[in-house]
Structure formats: C-alpha cells, structure tokens
Amino acid sequence: MTAAIGEELPPPASEATSPANFYTADSDPIVVIGKKFIVPNPVELKIQQTVFTIAENYLDIVDDNGNPIFKVRDKLFSVHNRRVLFDAAGIPLVSLRQKISSVHRRWKVFRGESEGAVDFLFSVKKSSLILRRMKTRTATSLDIFLASNTSESRPDFKIIENWCRSNCTVFHGDTIIAEMHKSQSVKSLVINADNYEITAYPNVDYAFIIALVVILDEINRNGDG
What we know:
Number of strands: 15
Helix content: under 10%
Order of helices and strands: EEEEEEEEEEEEEEHEH
Distance between the termini: 33 Å
Low-confidence stretches: 12-18, 132-136, 186-192
C-alpha cells in the first residue's frame, strides 16, 4: 500500500504492541508534500537558524555538504502566525499556520501559500496524553492527521520527544520513519537558537519531515509543548 497524499494510514506507534522498526527501501512510499521528495536511501539534513531580526526568523535546511535544500521564512508578527517552506529555488512548497484559538494550538499545513480547504494537507497538535516526569520536565507528544482523516479517531503519524527535548522520533504505526537531534554551535548559542540534524529514512517524504520538525520547534519555543 502506498501512503499517498490525503490517504488515511494504519494505527500510530502509541497503539502498537510490537517493537519499533525502521522504514526501509522496500517499504511503500510515504508521500505527503510531493513524490519528488522520495528517494530509496536515508536523507541526512540540517536545519540552521541563520538570521534573526525583529520581523523574521530565517531557517536554512542544507544537506551534509552544505548545499541548500529548503528554507523557511518565519513571519513572527503575521496575523496567522505563518511560516512558509520553500525549496532551494525559492518556490513555496507548503504554508504552516498556527490556529491560535485551538486549545491544543493546532498547526495546519497547506500546499503552496494557500489557506484554502482544497489545498489542506495535514494538521499537527499536541497529544491528549502529556507525559510528565518529576513535575519538572515534559516530553512533547504530537499527533499528525492527514486531510482525509476527518474523524481523527487516531493519528496517521506521531512525534515523540525524549525528556530533555534533545531528540525526537517520528512514527508511522510502530515504524520509525525519521529521527532528529539538536546540535549546538557557537553561533546558535549567541542567537539563542536550536539547530537540528535530521534523518529521514528511505521512501519517506523528507519535505514532510522538515515541516514537522519546524512545527515541533515552534511549539517548544512558544512553551506549548
């Protein structure tokens, strides 16, 4: 089965009983943003916060060789709290919009720079299960629902962070499809920003994974995690 755009998927990791495994080149492609972001090998990417101004927060996404792959333009004072993910050529791929009125601060993602229902791809919100440890730290759990999953009886994907928020894992059912960990440089410490190293496993839409990590970072930075 190919997990195509708008297609509801099997149960998430939280409902799985078998040990986690990893997505492979033999697994059916998971396509959410676009087929061109599917490759038969793991993709290693880095998110770097390169510029910080009063008006905007710029993120660059590069490969292991430093080649630009994506960029995010973050309008801090946008009415819709809106971020746009562009490809390296500057073409808008998806818009990430935070629904402020939502109890769980839901993020909705649309194709291009649209906000129309026909271009709605998926949404992300905090899980109703908030994991707590010693009342001092929380581990963020996010549920991801594809556009066709209108009942939202169970998420199509799930993100689980570790307690110190230095790593997260993206699940499709009981299978790990991507992993992220934070890395720090002198520059990131100076501008008080987090950089990320991301592995998207084979046959997983890596633009989709980047969008998820950007949303996770926004939720944590705003204290919604």
